[in-house]
Design goal:
This protein is of the alpha/beta class. It has a domain at 1-75 and 186-246: Rossmann fold (3-Layer(aba) Sandwich). The chain has 8 helices and 10 strands. The protein has helices at 40-47, 76-79, 97-107, 112-122, 138-150, 168-183, 195-201, 224-244, and strands at residues 2-10, 16-24, 29-33, 55-60, 63-65, 82-85, 156-160, 187-191, 204-209, 212-216. Strands 6-7-8-3-9-10 form a 6-stranded mixed beta sheet, with helices on both faces. β9 and β10 form a beta hairpin. The chain is globular and about 60 Å long.
């Protein structure tokens, strides 16, 4: 459903990602965790074709997003089966939450008359549905963004820090949505810094540091934060030793 094959994308000013290889299968929730600035959002943008790799390939629903020098056109019908929220909702701030959901449904080829009322109910947006988006609280803006990303029942879901600004009740809504959609065979990639939350829902938790994937986190332990920071510390030490040895 979603695959990275030896993907590298580096930036002139520094940063980026190197040699990323992993897959997300149907019905699977894969969580990506790492400190700020390690490349999580870059990885998400690569998954959505917002960036193209310098080396390697990204495949979405069997279609390759090839390297920048040999770009390919992925059919709109494929992207219509993808739902995403990266950093902030892509909306019209002067339109109401309801109207933004209506437009998002149309853009994904869904019937807005059916999907929008259902989405408003699922995300408990009724009290704010007819307010302009720019007048909503941060938490309600995030819920509108999540509703827009998921209401068309995408087969591939890519969410970057979806729990940002959500209150505990909304976090439960998000958890229930992701678990249900995984049961319906969606492939889900989600980044988060809430280790306890992702451990409840993720089939695999991938660790990222310095623009690279450094392994998986065992979520059966009692102190996930300590285990995470220890893995990052060990990786930093290995990289420093390698630099000294050059």
């Amino acid at each position: 459903m979603l695959a990275f094959e030896n993907v590298t994308r580096l930036f002139r000013g520094g940063g980026g990602v190197s040699d990323l290889t992993f897959t997300v299968g149907a019905g699977e929730i894969v969580a990506l965790i790492g400190l700020n600035g390690v490349g999580k959002t870059t990885l998400m943008r690569l998954a959505l074709g917002m960036l193209r790799p310098q080396q390697g390939f990204v495949r979405v629903l069997g279609h390759a997003l090839e390297q920048r020098r040999t770009p390919t056109i992925v059919p709109a019908a494929v992207w219509a089966q993808v739902g995403a929220l990266i950093e902030m909702p892509l909306v019209y701030p002067e339109l109401t939450a309801r109207r933004n959901l209506y437009i998002a449904a149309l853009l994904h080829g869904a019937d807005p008359d059916g999907t929008v009322p259902r989405s408003i109910a699922e995300w408990q947006l009724g009290p704010v549905a007819d307010r302009r988006f720019r007048r909503l609280s941060l938490g309600n803006r995030q819920r509108v963004g999540l509703a827009a990303a998921l209401q068309h029942d995408p087969r591939v879901i890519v969410l970057d820090e979806p729990g940002n600004a959500l209150d505990p009740a909304s976090v439960l809504l998000l958890r229930e949505q992701l678990i249900r959609r995984a049961r319906e065979d969606a492939a889900i990639l989600v980044s988060s810094h809430h280790l306890d939350e992702v451990s409840r829902i993720a089939d695999r938790v991938l660790l990222m540091n310095g623009g690279r994937l450094i392994g998986e986190l065992d979520t059966t332990g009692s102190d996930l934060e300590r285990a995470f920071f220890e893995r990052v510390r060990e990786d930093d030490a290995r990289r420093e030793a390698a630099e000294v040895g050059r």
